[in-house]
Amino acid sequence: MKKPFEVIAIIGKPRNQQAIQTHRELYTWLKSEGYQVFIDDRLIEILDDIPAEDFASLIQLGKAADLAIVVGGDGNMLGAARVLSRFDISVIGVNRGNLGFLTDLNPEDFQSSLHAVLNGEYIEEDRFLLEAEVHRHGQVKSHNAALNEAVLHPGQIAHMIEFEVYIDESFAFSLRADGLIVSTPTGSTAYSLSGGGPILSPSLNALSLVPMFPHTLSSRPLVVDSKRRIRLVVSPDNRGTQEVSCDGQVSLPVSPGDEIHIYQSPNTLKLIHPKDYSYYHVLRNKLGWSSRLF
């Protein structure tokens, strides 16, 4: 019987010695199981005992591999997702970070869970991404993708900024605030949650718009259909520069008078989980929700 995955990529920049050890163990174990294995070439100097021909760039891995195993925290998964979502590749995470909403596998005991996944016993879900574009004088000056959120904020020094929010060309509201978080369901348990945004079930096709420290008490998070195009028009009177942050990892500079367009990406992340995965179990664990009463 043909296995669902034959070429496997191991991805993730390690923070510590334990994470490096996990990369090594994964590589050795997958090789012993007969898989073709490639490793993220950012690790070539750290993993100098592995043959150089088994390293490749993220884009090469996206083209060549059927499955990517991301080792690290959610930050590593976000960075990988923005690139890998362009390719037909499934992604699973081994948690070597802190919270680990997106990384399911336990690094101390990945073999049994991963063995089942590699034999086709897994749950697959598509997580959509956002595209964020900065428009100046009718031209796109910069753009990037985000799996969690795109955030308009004042940059280095916190201060009030003014902007208008349009949804599908229809004026929705204007805001004086420290910024606005536009979040996917995946990002609803990240920065958006800290800002008082709602938790969105991952299968929802919805976006949440969460004002950051708004100057009026009537400003509340708003949930809209993910097919809506969000347009933020930055006041020409704002002081200094602002920026749009994608997943807290990529910053796009914004000047007074610019427009920011945020819309659903045509690409999706094919995230897979072990068969026993439950989103609500993850929420209970990570957010410290109470167990059953009876």
From TrEMBL:
Gene Ontology CC annotation, any one: cytoplasm
Lineage: superkingdom: Bacteria
Record EC number: 2.7.1.23
Single Gene Ontology MF annotation: metal ion binding
Binding site for NAD(+): D74, G75, N148, E149, H159, R176, D178, T189, A190, Y191, S192, L193, S194, Q249
Catalytic function, reaction form: NAD(+) + ATP = ADP + NADP(+) + H(+)
Keyword annotations of the record: ATP-binding, Cytoplasm, Kinase, NAD, NADP, Nucleotide-binding, Transferase
Pfam families, alphabetized: NAD_kinase, NAD_kinase_C
Subcellular location, record wording: Cytoplasm
Cofactor: a divalent metal cation
Active site as annotated: D74 (proton acceptor)
A single BP term in Gene Ontology: NAD+ metabolic process
Function: Involved in the regulation of the intracellular balance of NAD and NADP, and is a key enzyme in the biosynthesis of NADP. Catalyzes specifically the phosphorylation on 2'-hydroxyl of the adenosine moiety of NAD to yield NADP.
NCBIfam families: PRK01231.1 (NF002306), PRK03378.1 (NF002893)
Family in the record: Belongs to the NAD kinase family.
Name of the protein in question: NAD kinase
Species the sequence originates in: Vibrio nereis
